[in-house]
Design brief:
This protein has four helices and no strands. The protein is an all-alpha fold. The radius of gyration is 13 Å and the shape is globular. Helices cover 48% and strands 0% of the residues. The chain has a domain of 66 residues. It comes from Promicromonospora sukumoe. This is DUF4287 domain-containing protein.
């Protein structure tokens, strides 16, 4: 599963776009210095997210939408179309919509 696919699944599971969850995390005081544990606990308690989907959100909350270019354009299940994740909801993603 690509990183973007994880974020799209998070949206399906929570009803919130990744950007909305980042804003909610910031309201709770989570930022780049926050360890994964407290964020994972919040996502599990409030949204029922498991570790894999939670860790995708931990990355976005603590590091932003930029990811390693390692899998960009690669073949296989972990290939992402871009090294920048789309946080505004899968329905508006120009790489997959329209």
């Amino acid at each position: 599963m690509s990183f973007q696919a994880y974020l799209d699944a998070v949206e399906d599971k929570t009803g919130h776009t990744p950007r909305e969850l980042v804003a909610l995390a910031q309201e709770r005081g989570f930022d780049a210095s926050t360890k994964a544990g407290p964020i994972l606990e919040w996502l599990k308690e409030d949204y029922g997210l498991g570790r894999g989907h939670g860790m995708a959100m931990v990355h976005v909350i603590t590091k932003g939408p930029q990811i390693s270019a390692k899998h960009v354009g690669a073949s296989g299940t972990h290939s992402d179309a871009s090294d920048t994740l789309w946080l505004d909801g899968k329905a508006t993603n120009p790489a997959t919509s329209g």
